[in-house]
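#lab-general

N.A. 3:47 PM
ok so I finally got the sequence cleaned up, no stray characters, all 276 residues accounted for. can someone with queue access submit it? mine expired

B.Y. 3:52 PM
send it over

N.A. 3:53 PM
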Amino acid sequence: MEMLWKDGKRKALTFSYDDGTIHDRRLVSLMNTYGMKGTFNLNSGLFGKVEQAVINGIDTDFSRISGEEVKTLFEGHEVACHTLTHPSLTEIPAVMGRAEVLEDCQNLEKLTGKPVTGFAYPYGTYNDKVEEMLAECGITYARTVVSTENFELPHDFLEWHPTCHHESPKLMELATEFVKEDATEAKMFYVWGHSYEFAQKDNWQLIEELFRLMQEYGQDIWFATNDEIATYTKAYRELQISSDGNIVYNPTEVDLWYGIGKEVYCIHSGERKELI
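B.Y. 4:20 PM
back already:
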């Protein structure tokens, strides 16, 4: 019995982009054109800030989107927490970190009308105490900046390591391996970055090349937000299987798919099935 994604697909693709700069507008437009879905990690305390910055030695327009455009801009995608003002959570008192997370979530929830339970670590810094604090704040997953260069699912969603950054020299090599692989169980390709990086180097064609490849193989891929993948995976891990392995019960509110050999099955929310 192998875990499969929604509709019995064996591959999932997700994106995660940080900071909510004005370059998200172009990135979202491209995602919508190619049918991709992503998660955007926003700092609500910095909305509307106009800023020029030197990042990695390059003059960069680091201006932020406005709060008023959040709901419409990211329609069909996921809005997630990135703290109110982007501090390193390992370098500030826990009470300040908790306030940074909760206030950001509350602000984003008011703008989107949806619960915000996803997170990306500012500067990629975290430790056990930060993870514990996030869980107490209702965060269900948190993305790191550690590349796995593989397509495996995380054991701990509060330490969710992506496959690679979009500037990885192995991006298209990994992408080609992903679409060509004859997967027997659920695999995930997870790309992250900052949209301003495309503007810095004027290399938007980089992400369009990836989008075109994934669109070409789209019939075999579930294009999903971070939250959709985390929610689905956690639900699958809650399946209850009898001691003899013959009966499976889905106690969750999520319809789930699995494979036995080449056959694909769906077990609906609240359903009990005999496997043999």
